[in-house]
Amino acid sequence: MNGKVLLVDDEPHITRNLEKVIPWEMLGLTVAGVARNGLEALERLESEPIDLVLCDIRMPLMDGLELVRIIREKDLGCDIIMLSGYQDFSYTRSAIQYGVKDYMLKPIPYDELTGVIARIMSARRSRIKQENEEKQKLGKIFDLVSEKLLYDILMDYADPGAGGWLYEGDERRLLERRYVLIVLDMDIGSEKAKDWRGWEDKERKLWNFAVCNVLRDQLRETGLRHAVIQMRDGEWCVLIACEETDNCSLDQTQQWAIALLSALRTHVKLAFYAAVYRDVLSVEKLSSAYKQIQLCMMLSPNTQEVMIVSSDRTGLSQANQAIFDISGQMAAAIKRGDAPGIERELGSLSTQLQNMSEQSRGRIMPMLHYFMLNMVRELKEMGALSKENEDRLWHKLDHRFAVKDLLAVIRQVTAALGERSLDKKKQSERLMREVRLFLERNLYRDLSVEEAATHVGLSPSYFSLLFKQTFGVTFIEYVTRQRMEKAKQLLSETQTSITQIAKEVGYAERRYFTKVFIKYTGDNPSDFRSKFGIAGRQHE
Fold first, then answer.
1. E-strand stretches of 107-192
2. Could you report the per-residue pLDDT of 394-449, keeping only the tens digit for each?
3. What is the C-alpha separation between 51 and 79, in angstroms, rounded?
4. 418 with 457, same domain?
5. Taking the CB of the first residue and of the last residue of the chain, which one, N or C, has fewer CB atoms within 10 A?
6. Which parts of the sequence carry 4-aspartylphosphate (predicted)?
7. Which contacts (CB < 8 Å, 24+ apart) does range 471-476 have?
């Protein structure tokens, strides 16, 4: 694709000669137009993007130097070659101050000018290519950061309504968008899932990585901004940003979910099922909607390809509503490791089941069976089961059983958590101390939740919960804060270059480091050093 050049001179024979003599096509340029003075040129420059301006200095209404000054003030982004019949050095000096690429005297040596244009355009194309590559790299960084922030919001570890410095700048757009929420979960009740239970960690991680890639490849076809977030082993949240609600109807959302399931069936060997939330959601409602979907999926055997979930439960009977609520509270207690809470909900569940007719219990049992399959999975994520206990529970759940068997399994879960809770607090404190030291030693590297969790032998989801409970902030907020404090120290106490400081605190991309630093301190790194650095203190 050709670039565009604008010729600016009040002498028509000059612009005619430039149009005819210079081999524009060979240089990859097209003459976009001709202007007789600076005002005409400025109007043209503001109406369309121009790559190169060839401009005379002395012209009526607005001369070339004033035009160049305004071009730079408005940051119009074109390269400029000045043409002049005057050898006065003051003109040359002014042109250099405004970043003019070259300065040529009339009469114009056309062969020399052709070479100058070729050199300038070659450098411009290289610069634009590099800028585009940096933008792509920066875009990928923002996407990864956005996914981490959205994970914390979905898990209710972060309050988006409270704002905070992490959500300033580009990340603020996360809070302003509305989202479609699709949850895809592995069908752990299927025959093939029995093999999955025995996979080694390495095989499991590779499989999870492959699933993420399949989902992302499929979602690119929507052309919409999206995020694929792994919530736990075998479960993903897909968020699609909807600029216009009309483009994200429930029917369209279902079609996206069906397409994702189809892609997974084609490329992944385990079975999945999906649920979508009925409404388009603001960011503040994502966490509650995700919990609602997760509970509905846990309580509902896979009877339809895509489950539709909403906050309205008017279709449930009174007994079903009670079971639904008890199961949700029990799930929360299990995730907290709250053995007394599980025992309390177990009593409520036992009472409800005893008050049901035999026929009603028969309808409820498949739901509770599937719920317990998922609860054992949660315990596995938390590392709350020994391999022996885990295998025993899977074995029981793989066979048909009555209400008393179900209650026995839940009691076994309670017992497992009870044993674990004896030294849970001490163990948690020890693990978090170890994590803190690990982070301090590795701030210079690109750190992820997955790597930190693996370091202390926890699943990412349970690690994130434990981290928030211990430090009161999310993992990404803690790491970013530590990096910024370290950067402030280096900027104020050393003369190390900003690029090197960025690398020392874990940012390979200096521009991204600068964005984060401005969000955290309100100053860019250079201004911060001027105010608080060695030179600034000496000046004071």
1. 178-186
2. 777 777 666 677 777 777 766 666 555 545 667 788 889 999 999 988 888 888 88
3. 6
4. no
5. N
6. 56
7. 471/432, 474/152, 474/157, 474/158, 475/148, 475/152, 475/449, 476/145, 476/148, 476/149, 476/152, 476/166, 476/449
Residues of the chain above pLDDT 70, percent: 87
Q: Is residue 510 included in any domain, yes or no?
A: yes
Distance CA 110, CA 115 (A): 9
Q: Decide if 224 contacts 240 (C-beta within 8 A).
A: yes
Instruction: Give pLDDT tens digits for 266-317.
Output: 998 788 989 999 999 998 999 999 988 988 887 776 567 799 998 776 556 6
Residues 283 and 182 in one domain: yes
CA atoms within 13 A on the CB side of 262: 8
CB contact burial 56-82 (16+ within 10 A = b; e otherwise): bbebeebbbbbbbbbbbeeeeebbbbb
* Least confident stretch, 198-212, 228-242, 383-397, 411-425: 411-425
Closest to 258 (Cα-Cα) out of 242, 281, 241, 275: 275
Q: How far apart are CA 463 and CA 231, in angstroms?
A: 12
Do 502 and 405 share a structural domain? no
Task: Give the range of the structural domain holding residue 354, as residue numbers without chain letter.
Answer: 313-422
Rounded CA gap, 78 and 533, in Å?
Answer: 36
The Cα 145–Cα 436 span in angstroms is 21
Q: Where are any strands of DSSP class E within 147-225?
A: 178-186
> Which of 285, 312, 339 is the endpoint of a domain?
312
> Per residue in 244-261, pLDDT tens?
655 788 899 999 999 999
Is 238 within 8 Å of 215 (Cβ atoms)?
yes
Does a structural domain hold residue 135?
no
Are 275 and 293 a contacting pair, CB within 8 Å? Answer: yes
Count of domains observed in the chain: 4
C-alpha radius of gyration, the chain, whole number: 32
Answer yes or no: pTM beyond 0.85. Answer: no
- Do 482 and 414 share a structural domain? no
Longest dimension (CA), the chain: 104
Cβ-in-10-Å burial (0-12, 13-18, 19+) of 344 comes to: middle
What is the CATH classification number for the domain harbouring 31? 3.40.50.2300
User: For residue 226, what is the enclosing H or E element?
Assistant: strand 226-232
Read off the pLDDT of residues 434-447 as tens digits, 9 standing for 90 and up: 999 999 888 888 88
Q: What are phi and psi of 476, to 5 degrees?
A: -65, -35
Cis peptide upstream of residue 49 (ω within 30 degrees of 0):
no
User: Are residues 291 and 327 in contact, defined by beta-carbon separation less than 8 angstroms?
Assistant: no
- The CATH number of whichever domain residue 192 belongs to comes to 3.30.70.1230
